[in-house]
Amino acid sequence: MTQAGFSCLMEESLGKQWYFSLTEQQIIQYTWRDGNSWVQPAHIDGQPVKQFRVTIDRNDRIHLLAYNTSKHLIYYQWNGEQWYKRLLYRLQSRFEDISCLEILCTLNKVHILYYIENALKRAQESLIHAWLENSKWQSNVLLNFLSDQRIKPQLVQNDAQGNLYCIYTRIIRNQTRCYYIYYNNNHASWSKPFILFQQSGTCTCFDGHADSAGDFHLIWLEKAGPEYRLNYLKIHPTAPKSNNEILCILDSGAQPIQNPCLQIGNGLHCYWIQDGIGFVSRGDMSGRHWMQPQEMFRNKFVSYRKITKTLDGNSRFETEFGDGYPDFSWTLKTLLTGENAIKEKPIIQASGLRSEKKPDLSDSSPEDEKEQALFRTLKEVRNRMNEFQAKLKDMNDRMDDFQAALYQMQDYIRQKDKYSFQKEAQIRKLAFELEQMRAMRANIPVISSAGYKDEEKAKPSASDLSDEISIEHAHPNDEKDGTETELQYSLQGDDLHQSEDLPLKKNPPKNVDSGSGEIQLDNVRILINPEEESEEG
After folding, report:
1. What distance in Å separates the CA atoms of residue 424 and residue 178, rounded to the nearest whole number?
2. Which end of the chain is more exposed for a tag (fewer CB within 10 A), N or C?
3. Under 8 Å CB-to-CB from 163, ≥6 apart: which residues?
4. Over the stretch 88-129, which tens digit does the pLDDT of each residue have?
5. Residue 37 Cα distances to 16, 61, 308, angstroms
6. Where are the domains of the chain?
């Protein structure tokens, strides 16, 4: 994606121009051209922002997306007189941040894509897709990643049919792996990620556009060690895994390349800045042949984003190099197509080995034959390298599938461990409560249905019943039919209703003194202390 705070020039259908930029205090300001002069710049609000993007729809409504320093993602819409403001998302965690965002208008929809990154290790990061349809915002989590995967969205672009193209990269062991996903506007669905390539070093500064046939043309900057390369790739949306050859537009060695951009018109035009000088290289629509880079301009110029509307109602953006605000009198593109346009030279292949014109073999010299043999050898080596890269890409796809399955398995095991821990904690809690209930039951005496303790019910004390119960012992000789002496209880007071629940007390054994002073052994009675009884008589 483009740099944060990228200034933007936008033009309505009737020719009215708008210009958006950031002040030194990182506040969004805007102005528009009235005739030949610009009105005084105004601020949308006083909130400092980290980055913003702007676009225009088919009805000339301006849509602006900003991410401010308070970690709020805010959507603005110009209704012709004032700005309408709405909060779309608020980051809650201090470890989260929005690193990339984009807003696009296609046919009848406004699309927003932004990436939420996390500073913690192995934390979740998300690519969010939101769209405005029938004045209602809807959103969906497009992809989830881990912070250790080092994901970065690089480019989001649309075509004339309302389809979207998204390019993002992942760094694995100092190698950059580039992925591609495609949004089909007719089905309102995204494709699964495809690997476009894997290169050593870092790959940045992606730019690209779709042509009228639907093919997507992509350029990027590769930095492998101290060397810089400007590469090109043509992508078929329905067959992104086709073995398209990656072409090197420029191998600059150790000389840095800045702000490469691609424009599509009468052919392909690639612009970039190198050592403060603007360069351009032309290519045909097949993308297989590019001109040698030509110097365009050495004086001071700036880069900005230009948004234009097409006749079908779509809007598209591209990067321009020129004099910029407030004149906007020239760009590298107008210099190329104007009076000072560079004369085209014969188109050569991207490898720079041979021209497009085939040599005459009849007049070939020994040096030409050696060069042709070398060319054939290099072509064979390139074919073998392409086969090897195809196998390597297939292996990388399998590794990605395996890693995704491994992450899912780890998440499943983690959830199972968490569930098992919760169950074990519940079991321990219930066991502890059961032990408490058992202890409480052991300490509390059991109450019978009549309200007495079991021990007292089984063995009542004579002293406790002495005040309420009078016991009458029948003489053994008065027993009838040899039956045992019965104990008769007379109950008093409130215990009368409990008499049915009291157990009958059995006659004490005859060889035990029951308190009458005699012991009965069979038919012999033994008196205890007869002298004391005689004295009392």
Report:
1. 45
2. C
3. 106, 182, 183, 184, 185, 210, 214, 237
4. 999 989 999 999 999 999 887 899 999 999 999 999 999 999
5. 11, 22, 20
6. 1-149
